[in-house]
Design goal:
With 210 residues, the chain is an all-alpha fold. It contains eight helices and no strands. It is flat. It starts with 24 loop residues before the first helix and ends in a 14-residue tail after the last helix.
């Protein structure tokens, strides 16, 4: 090679990565297993109360399927609408009442989540959208007819209530803790689970207060 000649380096071009539709059966099966395990892990990490709620929602879906002749895993936009209309006719938790719209909305969510997490269903995005639109229609009709369902809006927590709660707390560390909790609950208008997650390290004293 002379001084005017240059070495030619080979250029290696990486092969294009395989696209999902090109995966073989073994790869697809492995990925499906990974997805199912991930869903299961997240589901198992839910609070006990949430898991019980979803179990009740799935039990309601199962009863609907048995009575309506819908296959148990046929969670589709159409069957979800049927589920809403079936729930609308079901009795409420108290004798003489009908199922509340908030309960129906939760049943929709629970059925969809359980189908995905517990039964490995790959449901389309927005599978419950049509059902919720139907629920809104039923609620509008209910309101126009002057019908009420459920317990209604919860009564507000007032300062008078705080005074009585404080007076009922014992004069010791437990009472001091309970007063602090209920006052913080009132100040931030938080839900119970939000308050339960609070820790001392989450607060700091400043010139303007805590």
């Amino acid at each position: 090679m002379t001084g005017t000649q240059k070495a030619v380096e080979a250029v290696v071009t990486s092969a294009a990565p395989a696209r999902p539709e090109e995966y073989d059966a073994a790869t697809r099966a492995a990925l499906d297993h990974i997805d199912h395990q991930a869903v299961r892990t997240v589901a198992d990490g839910r609070p006990e109360r949430t898991r019980k709620g979803y179990a009740q929602d799935w039990a309601s879906w199962s009863r609907f399927c048995a009575e309506s002749g819908v296959p148990l895993l046929a969670v589709t936009p159409g069957t979800m609408v049927m589920f809403v209309e079936w729930l609308w006719t079901q009795p409420g938790s108290k004798k003489g009442t009908s199922t509340a719209p908030s309960t129906i909305d939760r049943r929709i969510s629970g059925a969809v989540v359980s189908a995905r997490a517990d039964h490995g269903m790959k449901l389309e995005d927005g599978v419950a959208r049509l059902a919720r639109n139907r629920l809104k229609q039923l609620v509008k009709e209910m309101e126009e007819q002057g019908e009420t369902r459920g317990r209604g809006q919860a009564p507000p927590l007032l300062v008078d209530h705080l005074v009585r709660i404080s007076a009922a707390c014992p004069d010791n560390l437990t009472g001091l803790r309970d007063r602090a909790l209920v006052l913080m609950h009132f100040a931030v208008a938080g839900r119970e689970h939000e308050l339960a997650f609070n820790r001392v390290r989450d607060y700091a004293e400043t010139p303007g207060g805590i």
